[in-house]
Amino acid sequence: MIKKILIASIALILSFGATGSGVTRLVDYMVTESGVVELLARYGIKGTDAKMVESYVASSLAALASKKSLTKVELKELLSRLPVSGADANMRKELQVLLDMSENEIKKEDVVKAINNIIYLANRHGKSIIITCTECVNENLALSGFKFTVENIKNSSSLKVLNEVLPKNPAELNTFIASRMKRLGMGDYSKVTPDLVSTSEEKSLALFLGLAESGTPDQKALIASVKKLATRNGKTNLIDPKNPQKFWKVVIDDLSPQEMNGWTSTLEEVASLSQKEGLSTEEAFYRTLKDKAQGNDYLLKQFESLKSKRCFFK
Length: 314
What we know:
The chain has helices at 2-17, 26-30, 33-42, 47-65, 72-81, 86-99, 108-125, 139-143, 156-165, 170-183, 202-214, 217-229, 257-277, 281-293, 297-309, and strands at residues 130-133, 148-151, 231-232, 235-236. By secondary structure, it is mainly alpha-helical. The strands form two sheets. The chain has a two-stranded antiparallel ribbon with strand order 1-2. Strands 3-4 form a two-stranded antiparallel ribbon. Strand 3 (231-232) and strand 4 (235-236) form a beta hairpin. The longest helix is centred in the last third of the chain and has 21 residues, at 257-277. It is globular, with a radius of gyration of 21 Å.
């Protein structure tokens, strides 16, 4: 163990010494595992939380570069070549400025913002990466200002859609979503505004739509239950401002067949209750969960936490 720590420390020192100017910058920390963990520890982010963030950074850089490790020069060149425009271009520029900050200038908010930007850009322009909001996954990191978590997808059907079906270019991804929604009878994406589906959520939606045609039988059954939930008076509108829900995000989790079947059954119940009593999807979902949790204090606490976060309804 001591030998591993020594080797990691030497590698970190050598990478810092290679800056040319002798000044350690934020980019030096971002391209090494020990650097990210060390930097986070300065701001009280340690242990499992720090390792999680480090893994998010590593996965994001790998998604952008299609290889496991980058030098700081390679990272800078990669960012400069990203085909970004609009808000993504502004985020890229902000990240470039942050990465060039010297060690004595860096504040916690700079580190958090840089990592948020790396993860966001990887989701938008990288390969094989899906992100979700931190608030519903890790409250500690959310309180520190981290916006995104990176999902570690292992399901072979999901990976195939991510790697072989979904476009990497954001504009093409948007077109993919619109055409698939129309083909699957799930609504008109041209009418969907960013407050209903943010740019950071589009790849998750695209994965859902890709799996509707290329997923396993269990995935297709789950997707059919989400479609049923989004159907009112015979018309399906997956992204409905009058009855919002984001259960299409369920597919980004690596669920077992049993877990998928559990979700499918629950959403079928929610759809039935919603239609029978004229409830919104959100009202029907929480009533269904509360009924299932009755008599179990632990489940009731989990229910209250889930309801307060509104993870599928914001």
